[in-house]
Amino acid sequence: MLVNRVHGMRWRTLGGLFALLTLLLAMLSSLAYSSEALASHEGSSGGGSQQQRPVDRLIQQQVGEFQLKAIDSFRAGGNDNLGASDHRDMSYESPNGVKISHKLADFTSPHDANKAAKNTVKNRNSSAFRLIETFTVVDNSGRPVGSGAAFVDVRDGENDMFVVWTNGTLLATMNAPAEEVGDFFKELPYGVSITDRVQY
User: Fold this and answer.
1) Which of 14, 41, 98, 184 has the greatest number of CB atoms lying within 10 Å of its CB?
2) pLDDT at position 53, please?
């Protein structure tokens, strides 16, 4: 009888300790979640440390021989980024002073990225630029992930090119000397390679 009572007390004590431990773990978990939520809120509202935005993780400090010289957000609602959730305007320069301007925007869906790309093509297809090629963007396995178009600037003897392309939810544009376009594109992680080229 006494043994049973002692065992019963032990089980009740262990049960109580287990319940207390569970409660403490729940409180710690709740506290950790609250701290994380607060830090996230502060980052998004401008207070505390700034969190890295999605597009920032894709930006290359070096693309081939070209080094990143300047970076900034470009104006939301512009012709090249209708509805973009995140966007960057970058300037690259080679050791011998050749410059390339490059824009990258992220959209909520591939449909929105393609819509903005079509709008860009429409606005670029003017007397100053001539469409010379359309293409499909493919990933490393050859799967289509986007499309693009290339223009030449007829104002400077067609020495400079403007290229626009999509890759999933990304929209990218590039202004560069014609001889530098191909290598720069292939060095970008969201450029990969192209196929189904149609020349005009």
Assistant:
1) 184
2) 59
The helix/strand/coil state of 112 is helix
Mean per-residue pLDDT, 129-135: 93
What does R_g of the chain's alpha carbons equal in angstroms?
A: 27
pTM over 0.90: no
State how many domains the chain has: 2
Nearby residues of 189 by Cβ (< 8 Å), 6 or more positions away: 58, 60
Q: Clarify whether residues 172 and 75 are in a common domain.
A: yes
Both 92 and 181 in one domain: the answer is yes
pLDDT tens digits for 166-177? Answer: 999 999 999 999
Q: What count of other Cβ atoms lies within 10 Å of the Cβ of residue 137?
A: 23
Q: Specify whether the CB–CB gap between 165 and 117 falls below 8 A.
A: yes
The CATH number of the domain holding residue 134 is: 3.40.1000.20
Structural domain span for residue 10: 1-51
What digits encode the pLDDT tens for the residues 89-117?
A: 999 999 999 999 999 999 999 999 999 99
